[in-house]
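Hi Q.,

Before the meeting this afternoon, I wanted you to have the iron/sulfur cluster prediction in hand. No need to reply - just skim if you have a minute. The sequence and ligand are here:
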Amino acid sequence: MSGQRERIVHGLRVVIDRDQCVGFGDCVREAPEGFELDDATVAVFANPEAVERERLLRACDACPVDAITVYDETGKQIVPRPA
Ligand code: SF4
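Predicted structure with the ligand bound:
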């Protein structure tokens, strides 16, 4: 049940690295329509298309262990913000 999950949402490529996820649920709290925790308390996509772009980005950025990566339309990584 680990590995990566990927979705294209609002033109953004969102990748959940389930091996990194520690299940605190910050992403779920910020965008409950977009993410949920599975039976193993690891994040999966729910319906991320239902979350407006800015809040989706905030939810991905909220992850304390950077388990969610987002790339913009040009393929540039925007979450986590590159140093
Ligand atoms: S915020 Fe990160 S660590 Fe927490 S549930 Fe979401 S993906 Fe997992």
